[in-house]
Structure formats: C-alpha cells, structure tokens
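Task: fold both queries, return tokens.
Query 1:
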Amino acid sequence: MSFITRGFTGRGRERDDRLPPGQTLVGDFPVLSAGPTPDIDTADWEFTIRTESGAQHSWNWDQLMALPIEDVTTDIHCVTHWSKLGTGWRGVALDTLFEGVDTDYAYTMAHSYGGYTTNVPLDDLLDGKAWIAFEFDGEPLDPEHGGPARLLVPHLYFWKSAKWVRGLVMMEDDEPGFWEQNGYHLRGDPWKEERYW
C-alpha cells in the first residue's frame, strides 16, 4: 500500500535523470539574448583564435565548411531553468580548430558579433566538449538562435554557448565576460547549479 500522494511526487511526473537540479523540461526552444540580433552574412563571417603571442588563426565561412563536420546530439540547459533534451546540431569541433594553435594559456574569452563576451576555460572547449555550430535540427541556425554560427558548449549553462560567435582570445587568468560581470558564475556547471557568484 502506498501513502505517497500526488502532492509529494512533483505533480505526478517522474523526474528525468538527464535534468540537472532546478531545471524544467521544455519542448520549444526559448529565445533569450542580451541585445539585438545582429545580421551577419556568411560572406562576411569570420572566426579567429588569438593567442598570447598575438598569433591569429582565422577561418572564413568556406574554410569552416571545408573542415570535418560532426553531428552532435546533446541536451542543453539554460540558467533560467529550462532544459531541452536530445537536440541535434552540426558543427566543427573546437578540437579541430585548435590543432595548429600553440598556447600555454588555460582560459579563453569568446567574442560575438554584437559585442557579447563570455569566458570559458580551455579544458571546457576541448576533448569533444565544444563546437562551432551552424545547423540545428537539420536546418541552418536561425539568427535568433545565434546563426550563422554559435559556440556550442552543452555541458555548461547555455549562456556559455555564445551566439553569433566571431572568435576566442586566449587568457592567462579567468576573467569575467558580460553575464559574469553581472553576477553569473564564472564557470556555469548546471549539475552543480553554478548559476551565480
């Protein structure tokens, strides 16, 4: 005989083990941005990694498309408490882009068209953890979701997956980006609920 009522079981729903603490499952793809959506043509798009020596490694759109492209199925988690499970992306792994990059620094600052920044440790970008994504669910990435290309770092809260990404700058120390300067956590691990400082 069970004495547990609906009031004690989360309104009768089983908790999905893929949901980090404090997250709610959504079926749509909410749009949240810190500013207006920039209009970037792929003919004008460029991605650059700048190291501590001042060396710049750059790819235009055609050069990015000529690199090995990966299909990625992953869950994403927003700091505003929504999660979307099993999302499908296509992109180029940061591992591929860093193959010829010589750096001793352990941190990066991601820069976006439109001025947005977010800091990400290099360890969170390598070993199959991050991509420059340009397709979502089999379609080119909509501008409202960061198209033509965004950083995809799905194991961290989604503010770290910078929309409209244009480059990474290597940093010796972990310095805060836009949201981090405004009280968000420096790293943003959803499983540890690293939402705020």
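Query 1 returned. Query 2:
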Amino acid sequence: MTALTPGTWNLDATHTDVDFTVRHAGISKVRGTFNAVEGSLVVADDATASNVNITIDANSVDTGQPDRDAHIKAADFFETEAHPNMTFVSTEVRAQGNDPQEFTLVGNLTIKGVTNPVELKAEFGGQTVDAFGMTRAGFEAAGEISRKDFGITWNAPLQAAAGGVLVSDAVKIQIDASFVLPAEEGAQA
C-alpha cells in the first residue's frame, strides 16, 4: 500500500458509505445501506502492520422500504434488540499484485453475535488536505459473505416451477470510507 501518514485516523461517517446487495426472488437485487457507522484506522510506519476497527449500528439499516427495514431488524435477520451492533476488526493487510494502491484487508466480522473471518479487496484512494485544512484519506473495499455463516437463515421458498428461495445467501458488501487525521497529528505530517 502507498505511504499514508502514520497515526490514528477517525472514520468520517458523513463521507462514508457501507452498502450491501442481495439477490431477491432470484431475479432482482435489493440494495441497502447503514446510516450509522464509526471507527478508527491506526496506520503504522509499515502500512501492512496497520489496522482498522469499525462498528456499525444495525438499527441504521436503510433499504428505502420501512417495512422491509423493520423485518431486517427483527429476529429473522439481525435481531437488533439483542445484537444492536456489527463490528469489523482487521487482522491483516496484505499486498495485492503489483499495484501499491490495492490490497486485501482481512479481519473478523461479527454479525448477530457470530464472528467469522472475511477478506475484502481494497483500494487506497489517496491522502490529501481538504479545503478546511483537514488531512483525509479515502479507501474502497468490497467483498461477499454468506449470511448463513452468521446464523441468518430465514427464507421463503419460491413457486415450485421457479425453484429457489426469496433471499439469496450471498451478500455483496461495498464500502467507500473516508478517514480524518486529528489536527495535532495532521500538523506533524
């Protein structure tokens, strides 16, 4: 990964999107986002020794349909009363190919109280100082998980002729994240 100023960076939730996509009825896709996310990125002198820690408020799920969101928050899916947060804690940053901007982010994802390792293909978008004097860094990450691996197994069968089920097991994840270096650390950069 290309050089990034060492220090502890804070996730800028207003400039971060945590989105997901699942196949619905085998013929279309449902997309959603989480509107409340927080976290930090600790950048080491050796970028591969860096780590990220993210917490997502599961109650902030937004698919654009309030009834569907209520079902996703219920016991069939996230069971947010018992498990209000999802977390991702990285365990490894691995170079990917010859492009220093691309890497694999490995970590432990916890959903509904179940933790599993995941790998996300990631890209460093760069570091800059914005119009307000804040040092920022941007990243994109994407991956796919099996919701069954996290104990989320609810489904409904489709008509016998069509086969299949209402909600796919595979969930695609897309993250666009912006981190800000606190002013005192950014001033040293």
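Both queries returned. Flag for query 2: DSSP finds two helices and eleven strands in the chain.
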